[in-house]
């Protein structure tokens, strides 16, 4: 499918069943086994862990959206991260990462990755990355904007500068927050893009999924081997739901972005908001309640926004990183990053922006001690 991204999204899956029924909507294939025409012959589908028609169509769509050669749909965002790290790194290797990350990613790094004998260092900026590169450094992991501080890392600058001196170091970007609507890392010099497709790509709080996309054919073969071996693949129904959701991604992201901008602008002036973080694009913001405002009272005062641990859906969700997404980090680590007990993360949904502002404002005002 050619054309601009809005057209690619809306037309996703259309025409894929023309030889059978002409269905506009991608068919859903539940089968785990596929008949072989004869000995040594295959229709291209043999067993569901290897591939399914529905997942195959989804992966083609994801690759096009992120300008990659191949995409892989996985069972969750964390399984997507694991696919990358289990493929790239082995015992004794080293990697670098941006210093502000989703708490589950930190937990994965400090747990499974280090247990495999892999070491890492967090970095705050380009100079920090360059200073901490070692002979065994194989990967740089970027999350931008970061979660929950909305910190921006310049993908193009980091990729160009690092690869000029260290061409074999891979650059991987978690693009969950901005999606290919607002950021396409492979066009900026990255080698790998990862999504928690549970979030904006799925967009309805009803799918658990992940995605990995690469622009390198050889690396794609390595990822495919690792994925079919581990079996962390996305099931057919979730693949079908994700295909359905992608058709409206451009429309949803425009509204998320509009509401994010509006709340970021207006909440700065609300009494009780001590400081606000916003990347300037997208639907994610975070802010600090002033010390004389009670977080639990604020949460209980919400009438539209929901206190829940996710993001990217139609409903506005409020998360307290210190006790939810980042609770496994030490108090010292959270303090160093600015993740205090007063930090509120907001995933701006698709509701009316004035209704959202009114709800957040009254909940803040009611939380004054």
Can you tell me the CATH architecture of the largest domain?
A: 3-Layer(aba) Sandwich
- CATH fourth-tier homologous superfamily of the largest domain: Type I PLP-dependent aspartate aminotransferase-like (Major domain)
Low-confidence segments, given as residue ranges, are none
Strand order of the largest sheet: 1-7-6-5-4-2-3
Q: Supply the number of structural domains.
A: 2
Mean pLDDT: 96
Helical content (DSSP H or I, runs of 4+): 25-40%
Provide the gyration radius in Å: 21 Å
**Gross morphology:** globular
First-residue to last-residue Cα separation: 57 Å
β-strand amount:
15-25%
Task: Please state the structural category.
Answer: alpha/beta
Please trace the helix and strand order, writing H or E for each element: HHEHEHEHEHEHEEHHHEEHEEHEH
The largest sheet is:
7 strands, mixed
How many distinct beta strands? Answer: 12
Please state the oligomeric state of the protein chains shown: single chain
User: What is the CATH first-level class name of the largest domain?
Assistant: Alpha Beta
DSSP summary: helix tally: 13
CATH topology of the largest domain: Aspartate Aminotransferase, domain 2
Task: Describe the protein's architecture and organization.
This protein is of the alpha/beta class. The protein folds into 2 domains: 5-247, Aspartate Aminotransferase, domain 2, CATH 3.40.640.10; 250-365, Aspartate Aminotransferase, domain 1 (Alpha-Beta Complex). Helix content is 37%, strand content 16%. The chain has 13 helices and 12 strands. The protein has helices at 5-10, 53-65, 77-88, 103-115, 126-132, 155-165, 179-182, 217-230, 236-246, 249-267, 295-301, 331-337, 353-365; strands at residues 70-74, 94-98, 119-123, 137-143, 170-174, 192-196, 210-214, 273-278, 284-289, 306-307, 317-319, 343-347. Strands 1-7-6-5-4-2-3 form a 7-stranded mixed beta sheet, sandwiched between helices. Strand 5, helix 7 and strand 6 (192-196) form a beta-alpha-beta unit. Helix 2 (53-65) runs parallel beside helix 9 (236-246) and helix 11 (295-301) packs across helix 13. It is globular. The mean pLDDT is 96.
């Amino acid at each position: 499918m050619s054309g601009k991204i809005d057209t690619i999204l809306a037309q996703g899956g259309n025409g894929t069943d023309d030889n059978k029924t002409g269905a506009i909507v991608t068919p859903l294939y539940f089968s785990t086994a596929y008949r072989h025409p004869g000995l040594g012959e295959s229709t291209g589908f043999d067993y569901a862990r290897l591939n399914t028609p529905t997942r195959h169509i989804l992966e083609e769509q994801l690759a096009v959206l992120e300008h990659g050669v191949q995409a892989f749909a996985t069972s969750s965002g964390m399984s997507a991260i694991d696919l990358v790290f289990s493929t790239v790194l082995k015992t004794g290797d080293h990697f670098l990462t941006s210093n502000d990350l989703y708490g589950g990613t930190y937990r994965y790094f400090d747990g499974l990755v280090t247990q495999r004998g892999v070491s890492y260092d967090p970095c705050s900026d380009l100079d920090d990355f360059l200073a901490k590169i070692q002979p065994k450094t194989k990967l740089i992991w970027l999350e931008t904007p970061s979660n929950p501080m909305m910190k921006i890392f310049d993908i193009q600058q980091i990729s160009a500068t690092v690869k000029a001196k260290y061409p074999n170091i891979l650059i991987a970007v978690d693009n969950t927050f901005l999606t290919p609507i607002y950021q396409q890392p492979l066009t900026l010099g990255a080698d790998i893009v990862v999504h928690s497709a549970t979030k904006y790509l799925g967009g309805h709080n009803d799918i658990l999924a992940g995605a990995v996309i690469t622009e390198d054919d050889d690396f794609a073969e390595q990822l495919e081997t690792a994925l079919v071996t581990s079996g962390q693949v996305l099931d057919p129904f979730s693949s079908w739901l994700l295909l359905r959701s992608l058709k409206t991604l451009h429309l949803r992201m425009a509204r998320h972005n509009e509401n994010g901008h509006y709340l970021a602008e207006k909440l700065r002036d609300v009494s009780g908001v001590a400081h606000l973080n916003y990347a300037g694009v997208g639907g994610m913001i975070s802010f600090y309640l002033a010390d004389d405002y009670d977080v639990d009272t604020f949460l209980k005062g919400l009438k539209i926004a929901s206190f829940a641990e996710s993001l990217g859906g139609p409903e506005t969700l409020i998360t307290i990183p210190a006790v939810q997404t980042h609770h496994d980090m030490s108090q010292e680590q959270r303090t160093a990053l600015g993740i205090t007990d007063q930090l509120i993360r907001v995933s701006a949904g698709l509701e009316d922006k004035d209704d959202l502002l009114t709800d957040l404002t009254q909940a803040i005002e009611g939380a004054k001690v």
